[in-house]
Amino acid sequence: MRPIETDQDIDRLRRYAGAYAILAAWSGAGMFEALAEAEALEPAEMPGDPRSIAVTAPVLIHLGLLNTDGKKLSLSRTGHALLQSRDLAMDGAMQALGDLSRLDAVLQEGGPVVGADGTPRVTEIGIREGNPEEARRFLERLHRRSAISAKEVASWVARHLRPNSRILDLGGGHGRYGKALAERGFDVTLFDRPLCVELARERYGGGLAFLAGDFLSDDLGGPYGGVLLSNIIHGLGREENFRLFRRIGDALVPGGVMILKDMFLDELGAHPEKAVFFGLNMLLYTREGKSYSVYEIRSLCKEAGMDLTQHVFVPDGGYSLLFSRVAGRE
After folding, report:
1. Do residues 252 and 326 touch, judged by C-beta distance below 8 A?
2. Comparing C-alpha atoms, which of 217, 206, 212 is closest to residue 190?
3. Sign of the CA dihedral 321, 147, 214, 219?
4. What pLDDT score was predicted for residue 282?
5. Class of domain 7-84
6. Can you give the three-state secondary structure of 239-277, one letter per residue?
7. Whether the model pTM is above 0.90
8. CATH second-level architecture of 141-326?
9. Residue 88: predicted pLDDT
10. pLDDT given at position 212
């Protein structure tokens, strides 16, 4: 994102915010689905206020999501493709906008954000155990978006571990990373909360082993040649990560490797963009989570008796891989 230098830059941000709000509102009101069913509709034929639809539609036309002949609206090819992949469904987008509107209270009182009903909107690594359908949608979205990164991660892991090594996919969620590792010939065990394990077993039950529990307190099994944590540590506080790193060290064989995949900040905390803005989600929806810098993780590994040996940055994926070994072991 470009730095703010002029009034025009502020105006651009307002336009972006307005565009996101319109996209979320159309999604929440079922407008895209209505157009997909009818192919083309006039604003007055759509489920909502005709004037409001007519005024907001040009923004979506400008974004390339709608077509128009001047009277009727229809989904563009991009709009159809995104709707089929559910990226236009924007699950929870309206709730997210409401949460952002309460950021002033979070800045004064601390997170996580409290919803309109007064209930904290905290999650456990993105999952609310009491809402299995929301968890399923969340994991399906992550699964859909991880096709490329799962293969990339498995390729890098294969360069650091012996063939057929045992690997623990810790907090493996939807199971796509574990599956990609298994396809590389590794013996993979996925560990996550019972709800996540249930959903992952439905998808990949035959190709992975499973353990259900709390990885901060329950037995991790092992010993393993490697332990992968994909997008896990950002949801935890520093002391929780320290405790988890120590537990992982105990579960590794001599020479074993802990692999952290996440969006890490640079030393000054200003880049890359994905990590910078993702920290806001952690403020709103976790008790102590944040976007960590590579420097912070290097220091934390050292305190936990591990040496960070390699940092791989994948710029087009917006993430990094950090490889650590238990100190003094080869």
Report:
1. yes
2. 212
3. negative
4. 93
5. mainly alpha
6. HHHHHHHHHHHHHEEEEEEEEEEECCECCCCCCCHHHHH
7. no
8. 3-Layer(aba) Sandwich (3.40)
9. 72
10. 96
| 52 token code pair | 């409001």
d(CA 95, CA 23): 13
**Gyration radius from the chain CA atoms:** 22
pLDDT higher than 70, residue 129: no
Structure tokens at 137: 């949608």
| Overall size of the chain counted in residues | 330
Question: Could you tell me the two tokens for 122?
Answer: 């905290």
Closest CA to 91 of 30, 19, 28: 28
Residue 158: closest CA among 269, 319, 321, 288: 321
Do the strands 224-230 and 209-212 form a parallel or antiparallel pair, or are they unpaired? Answer: unpaired
Domain chopping of the chain, boundaries: 7-84, 141-326
Q: Identify the top-confidence range among 92-101, 117-126, 278-287.
A: 278-287
**Locus of tokens 């993105």:** 126
Number of other CB atoms surrounding residue 91 within 10 Å: 16
pLDDT at 221 over 80: yes
Nearest in space to 322 (alpha carbons), one of 225, 189, 201, 228: 228
* pLDDT cut 70: percent of the chain above it: 96
> How many other CB atoms sit within 10 Å of the CB of residue 190?
30
CB 177 within 8 A of CB 232: no
Contact (Cβ atoms closer than 8 angstroms) between residue 194 and residue 163: no
Cite the DSSP H helix spans in 63-207. 77-84, 93-101, 103-109, 132-145, 147-158, 176-183, 194-204
Q: How many CB atoms within 10 Å of residue 155?
A: 11
326/247 Cα distance (integer angstroms): 11
pLDDT digits (tens, 9 = 90+) for 107-127: 999 999 998 888 888 876 666
The rounded mean pLDDT for the chain is: 92
